[in-house]
Amino acid sequence: HRLLRSIGLQATAAQKKELEETVVDMHLGNAGLLSFVDFLRLMRWLLDSDYAGINDVAAATAAEKVRVAESTGAGGGGGMGPTMSRAVTNGMAPTMSRAV
User: Fold this and answer.
1) Residues 6+ apart with CB under 8 A from 52
2) Among 21, 36, 58, 80, who pairs with 84 as Cys (CB 3.0-4.6 Å)?
3) CA angle 36, 2, 37 (to 5 degrees)
4) What does the pLDDT look like over 59-90, one tens digit per residue?
5) HEC profile for the chain?
6) How big is the chain by its Cα radius of gyration, in Å?
């Protein structure tokens, strides 16, 4: 929960319970730790389910980073290129397609 709070997510009690259940449902490795693959699966689930509005928070954070980079002359979008920079700034954050 600390990681999600650190990026500005405010999860309800029901959402926290759902997250905990999702983590438990995933295969837990030694000492109850998620493997890297399971961590990636968890991240995919967070995005696909838009857990606690994570997609809006991510888009706003990316737009702010672009704005700061452009205002400081740091390469117009932090290396994203002009098309990606405009898309993020316009609130159209890129999405990752799900592998089949």
Assistant:
1) 4, 9, 10, 11, 12, 15
2) 80
3) 10
4) 998 899 999 999 988 755 445 555 555 555 55
5) CHHHHHCCCCCCHHHHHHHHHHHHHCCECHHHCECHHHHHHHHHHHHHCCHHHHHHHHHHHHHHHHHHHHHCCCCCCCCCCHHHHHHHHCCCCCCCCCCC
6) 16
